[in-house]
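From the pipeline queue, job 12 of 40. The input is one protein chain; the requested action is below.

Action: predict structure.
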Amino acid sequence: MAQDIFLTIVQAQASYARAIDSDDLESWPGYFTPDCVYKITTAANEARGYELGVVYANSRGMLQDRVSALREANIYEKHSYRHIVGMPVITSDNGKDVRAETPFVVVRIMQDGAAALYASGIYRDCFRRDQDGVKIAERIVVCDSQRFDTLLALPL
């Protein structure tokens, strides 16, 4: 049984990254529960106990608004991401919610073809089981670096 949830989470992480990397941002909020929390912070801020993130949303609706703003309102240099997602470690499973930590690296690719390491860190997740598998109830994206060299436009 533990292997089944591990594989379910591996698939969920891979599908999540694929949606962002393939510019299917409209499907991105669908990976979350309606009452989700999504926060991007830094390891240093997390260590200090700072609650506020660089990005913070507390519902799927806020994530949908973020996508709409990216498509219609925000102005930023066109770029794409390539996520390299490691293997998750299941830290707890109470039968309903599964907590996991998954390392990641994100490479940013600019329109001119230049590629550079954009972010690395860990996803601290709470996945909630549902009829379709799992959805993200909480995703805390903890970035190793405190530095973001451009506007954090696309989701991590």
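Job complete. The chain has one domain: 2-143.
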